[in-house]
From TrEMBL:
Family matches, as PANTHER family: RIBOSE-5-PHOSPHATE ISOMERASE
Name of protein: Ribose-5-phosphate isomerase
Lineage: Eukaryota, Fungi, Dikarya, Ascomycota, Pezizomycotina
Gene3D superfamilies hit by this protein: 3.30.70.260, 3.40.50.1360
E.C. no: 5.3.1.6
Cross-referenced CDD domains: RPI_A
Pathway(s) served: Carbohydrate degradation; pentose phosphate pathway; D-ribose 5-phosphate from D-ribulose 5-phosphate (non-oxidative stage): step 1/1
GO biological process: D-ribose metabolic process; pentose-phosphate shunt, non-oxidative branch; pyridoxine biosynthetic process
Top-level EC class: isomerase
Amino acid sequence: MSSNPPVPPAAAGIAVPTGAAYKSLSPIEAAKRRAAYKAVEDHFDTSYRYIGIGSGSTVVYVVEAIVAKGRDVTSKMAFIPTGDQSKQLIIEAGLPLGSIDSLPPVEDVPSEMGRENALHVATGQQDLGLKGKRESLDVAFDGADEIDEDLNCIKGGGACLFQEKLVATSAKKFICVADSRKLQPRLLTSWKTIPIEIAPLAAPTIKRILITLGSPDPRIRQGGSAKAGPVVTDNGMWIMDAPFSPLLISDDIKDGVKGDGTDGIWEVHQLGRRIKRIVGVLEVGLFYGRNGGQVANAGEEGGGQKPVAAYFGMENGEVEVRVAKEFGGIKSRP
Ligand SMILES: O=C[C@H](O)[C@H](O)[C@H](O)COP(=O)(O)O
């Protein structure tokens, strides 16, 4: 895909680039926008009901592409935010706002599966295993700070990560959209720290433990000129940015290479699980593991889930699509 997406119709509150404004997008912004349109083209279905909308600068273009589908399509859906920024984005785009903690029980949903289960429960027959289960999101779109060749991600550069992981694990498919700078062979190649959302009271203890795990200089993220003192997340927490050496992927674990922190070398899953165990850690900005909304124990593994596909806007105007190896591992350059 080497041409720019069409200019969509204007939507309430959304600054849609048109004409000269479109041409004024920087190459990186134009690349992000092309990737977002391609991701929406491939993974947004008009029959969907619940759509997760992530945080950051790239999902702005995802929302723009969704708005371009028209109100006839979007008014029947609910858009679930991953924090205050994406909540505002959804509202200003005129899309119906939903909430991750108010998804209806499956039985209330007029789907074949829900109706069938309700019938079985009502008639005393065997429950299909859906009792108490809530609806999944059909898809969640989000950005990332870095994505490795196995599609593990670092997220949280914008201080949103707990709600992003919650939304990702609630989705049948999680789709990442980014530009070419984010694609690296291993995590912590270009992006140097892991964002960790922590309880402020636990900050000194967490910092000490991270140092023992091999992080040379974990730091509490400061608000800079925008806010005196630490950045406070949408959940009233702080962010600790912890540098580590580049992380191994699971395929690297062989021939005596353990990835368990020996000599300061960690594999993504092992480090993610280890940090999550520290008291006071709300969430770790490493996204790895199986597809969330379609597995019984979604959210129980700590890693959230890695995307089933990642879309990268490349410098040459193309969009590179990478698919998780569990889903075929195809790389394509449409
Ligand atoms: O906390 C922020 C989120 O994880 C973002 O999705 C991530 O930082 C990527 O943001 P952007 O699209 O602005 O590069």
